[in-house]
Amino acid sequence: MNRTSRGVIQTVLLDAGGVLVFPNWDRVSDIFGRHGIAVPAAALRAAEPQAKFAIDTAHSIATTNDADRGSRYFHLTFDAAGIPAGDVRRPVLEELWAYHQEYNLWEEVPPDVVPALEQLRAAGLTLAIASNANGVLARMFDRVGLTRYFHAICDSCVEGVEKPDPRFFRIVLERAGGEPETALHVGDLYNVDVLGARSAGITPVLLDPHGLYRAFDVRTIRSLADLVTLVTGR
Fold first, then answer.
1. DSSP string, 113-131
2. What percentage of the chain reaches a pLDDT higher than 90?
3. Which residues pair with 219 in a beta bridge?
């Protein structure tokens, strides 16, 4: 197994949204269509990475919570996808919000996720979810078939504290039976995941498939396959 500067990696914490599960842009496209606005799911997927990068600033993270940032993230994605601004978005956003509160819109599982999780588990690693979410993450993981890979699934809404607060990472480690010296956290936001993990004494890794964080002081990977290689040496 890969070593950090402090020991062999035994526990891998993973963010959910943006690492293992992604917004169901097909559903979003369908909802817009029902409201008379044609926008391809592909256009939304293409617009999303820059929108997420735009909200990942120290000021944004310090002055907003995850739900507030979510609203801006969607508006920025819609802007870049060419969707008209203003009241035409309101009924779509209301429908999306209702669906998200009941089911969690981050329900798309890319094909590389399950093979990577199986390889990490086969290597003897303990896996846990450390996610800023909305209270229904565990139910969504049950629905999409991911629950069985994790020793613990921690949802910030349930725990009452969210990343980057180090208390959240400590909760996850305690549930997973891990120690910060031998833990790795994989996230997709520098100011949430990287700085939060570091503040809890955990080694961070940033999933950066589009190369947006090249200038940042963190180890980046392009895919979950890269994560498997990083922690198992295979």
1. HHHHHHHHHHTT-EEEEEE
2. 93
3. 205
Fold (topology level) of 11-21+109-232: Rossmann fold (3.40.50)
The residues of the chain scoring below 70 in pLDDT are 1-7
Residues of the chain with CATH 3.40.50.1000: 11-21+109-232
Q: Of the candidates 128, 172, 120, 119, which has an alpha carbon nearest to the alpha carbon of residue 150? A: 128
Task: Note the pLDDT of residue 1.
Answer: 46
Report the distance separating Cα 11 and Cα 228, nearest Å: 13
Distances in Å between the alpha carbon of 21 and those of 112, 113, 124, 188, 201? 11, 8, 23, 12, 26
Question: Is the whole-model pTM more than 0.70?
Answer: yes
Q: Are strands 126-131 and 22-23 parallel, antiparallel or unpaired?
A: unpaired
pLDDT tens for each residue of 104-119? 999 999 999 999 999 9
